[in-house]
Amino acid sequence: MPSHLAVIACLMGEMAERGIDFRPLLAAIEIEPKKPRGAASKGHFGGSKQADLFAGREQRAASKTLGDQNGT
Question: 10 Å Cβ neighbour count for 15?
Fold first, then answer.
């Protein structure tokens, strides 16, 4: 966990224990979602600029299985 998020969580926990209702303050903040960064691709968190080392592996495995079933 990033240290700045840990500090925020700690402060929010302490305020909750002391009965300080901070939720209205947070609701009043207009937070805009961050824009995606990097080369994110479907199924890969954060993307990957490196070539997929296992590309085609499933296809090769399937063709071997088919070959075994055909008696080759």
Answer: 14
Determine the structural domain holding residue 25 and report its residue range: 1-31
Residue 40 lies in a domain: no
User: Tokens representing 32?
Assistant: 């805009």
Residue 14 lies in a domain: yes
User: How far apart, in whole angstroms, are the C-alpha atoms of residue 5 and residue 22?
Assistant: 16
| Burial category of 56 from C-beta neighbours within 10 Å (exposed 0-12, middle 13-18, buried 19 and up) | exposed
C-alpha span between 53 and 44 (Å, rounded): 14
- pLDDT one-digit tens code per residue, 6-34: 999 999 999 999 999 999 998 999 988 88
What's the pTM value of the predicted model, to 2 decimals? 0.44
User: Dmax over Cα atoms in the chain, in whole Å?
Assistant: 73
- Contact yes or no for 55/44 (Cβ under 8 A): no
